[in-house]
Amino acid sequence: xxxxxxxxxxxxxxxxxxxxxxxxxxxxxxxxxxxxxxxxxxxxxxxxxxxxxxxxxxxxxxxxxxxxxxxxxxxxxxxxxxxxxxxxxxxxxxxxxxxxxxxxxxxxxxxxxxxxxxxxxxxxxxxxxxxxxxxxxxxxxxx
Amino acid sequence: xxxxxxxxxxxxxxxxxxxxxxxxxxxxxxxxxxxxxxxxxxxxxxxxxxxxxxxxxxxxxxxxxxxxxxxxxxxxxxxxxxxxxxxxxxxxxxxxxxxxxxxxxxxxxxxxxxxxxxxxxxxxxxxxxxxxxxxxxxxxxx
Lengths: 143, 142
Fold this sequence. Notes:
The structure holds two protein chains of two kinds. By secondary structure, chain A is of the alpha+beta class. Chain A has helices at residues 23-30, 48-53, 63-78; strands spanning 13-15, 87-92, 102-114, 117-128, 133-142.
């Protein structure tokens, strides 16, 4: 059941669940299918050596893993309908080390009546447990 | 030779990628992102839905069989505009297509903007993305 309704007010803030992209979860996300020979595939997310060869200081988790945490929050807020009309625009502003505690958050930025629907615009972000934002953007959905 | 000379350019398309989402493959992503909602695995809720993070990850341009960077060069995702159009269903095959629609340089780095479309085996559009990607080159890529 959706949490945001037409009565939800501008400025209301929502939090997702705490996530910890631990080593096994990063391998599961970025290492390719478990069935692939040589799993997990070496890349900038699964291998520090590979990341350093590419000039990176650390092996950050994939931006799409962070997006997954935000999408989960959007579906919690708007329901499964989010997958049939939800839009989001996200910038990845800080790398995220494996094992970092993360939480997706959202605040209602605006709402606008459009004929028989209400369009919500949310500021969305994902932050570390010290409050540092790692991804920021906006989400839009009509209910 | 600069590695950017080896890359596809604005207006060019990457080789499409197709993949099947089995229940096991979907559950791999449920584990990865710690989201075990039954809509993704329990048939009591109808045909299980593909976790959106799987579709996002599998539609990164690096999945294209034709995507190739020299050793020591990595693609870094910096921004993503995503439209969710329809939920994907577990058990279906999906096809991803990409087109490079823009290139720009910022703070000494080269960026590409890549439009992405994911459709299922019935031709139903599942999602559209516009991803901004830049490239890092280490000593191994020189």
